Every structure is written in structure tokens, then in C-alpha cells.
Amino acid sequence: MHTVLVLLAGFALLGLCLLIARLSAGRGPAPLRKAAAAFVPLWLIGAGINLWIGVDRAGYSVAEELPIFLLVFSAPALAALALWWKLSRR
Fold first, then answer.
1. Which DSSP category does 89 fall into?
2. What Rg do the C-alpha atoms of the chain give, in angstroms?
3. Per-residue model confidence as pLDDT tens digits over 3-35
4. 8 partner at 20 to 30 Å CA-CA among 19, 25, 44, 46?
């Protein structure tokens, strides 16, 4: 259940980045491309914090947490990169 909540948090952060870009920079694909690109390092930090909490507080080993980290990071990051790519083709 925790993994699902973290994934939802990743997609929510992506949506928040896109919303902030739309509200602050206006219309057009360029601000949304920048927001999608800016999301990836932000989410890498967030997913890394989740990995650290799993190792430090939950008692899992890095080897046990690494596949979860890859899933938690890659799903929202791939969505952001797909959006970036689609907006780049306009």
C-alpha cells in the first residue's frame, strides 16, 4: 500500500509542476516541457528519500529496497519524459 501511495505522490507532484508552469508562464508547450523536465530530478530526490526511509527506518536492506525505488522513480519519470517528448514534437 505504501508503494501505491508513493507512486500517487509522484504523479501528484508531476501534476503540481505542470500546474505551476501553466499558472506562472502561461500557455504554450514550452513551460510544460520545462516543468516536465524539472520534475525528473525533483522526483529522483523524492524517490531517494523514500528509499532511505525504507532502509533506515523500516529495516530493509538496500538490495530489498532497490527494485521498489526503481518502480517508484521510473513510473512517474517515464510519464514526465513521455509528456516532454510529446510536447517537443509540436
1. T
2. 15
3. 999 999 999 999 999 999 999 988 889 999 999
4. 25
